[in-house]
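B., you asked whether I could sanity-check this one before it goes into the benchmark set. Here's the sequence:
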Amino acid sequence: MDNNQNMENQNNQFSQSGQYTQYSQNTANDPYAQNTQYTQYPYGSSYDQYTAGNQYGGANIGSPIIETGNRPLGILGAALGAIAGGVVWTIIGCLGFISGWIAVLIFFMARFGYKLLGKVQDTFGNVISIIFGLIVIFPATWAAYAYSVWKALNDVVSIGHFKYIDVVMDLAFYMERHELWGNFAANLAMGYGFTILVAVCYLIGNRKSR
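And here's what the prediction gave me:
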């Protein structure tokens, strides 16, 4: 009896001291303590429903944020990046050099443009970068060959007589006449081969790393 009475007196003293009352007030004002959905989340229920009903899940914390990006702007960025790489291909070709590694540069510049404007890098971005890289190589090679023919015509025939834009338009005739198609096709094949090889290796490596 004495022990029970002593325990009862201690409980009365604890409640009268205000400590228990203060704890109750703190938990009443604490939104984290009020939120019982964290402890009542049922096994096997929908995660989306849980986070949608959780005042701390949807827009604040507790739910993953998936970046979707802007695909149309990403496509534009990939096109601009590929064009910039094509300009590099043309400049190197005008200097008399053709390198397959420039085709690799075109692919990565297209990827960079897609990520820069699209704000995301996904499988679609990689595929569209490959497509733009392959497309750009042809006009870039055409422009480089047109410069070489234009320069040769002005050096041999008449300085300043031929305009570059005219040679670009009539390049098929000049390549047929001077038998340049074979060399032109070989450079195209090299560019396409490097682009496809590096792109495939990159995609396979990227998939394995996930």
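One thing to flag: The two ends are 69 Å apart (CA to CA). Otherwise nothing jumped out at me.
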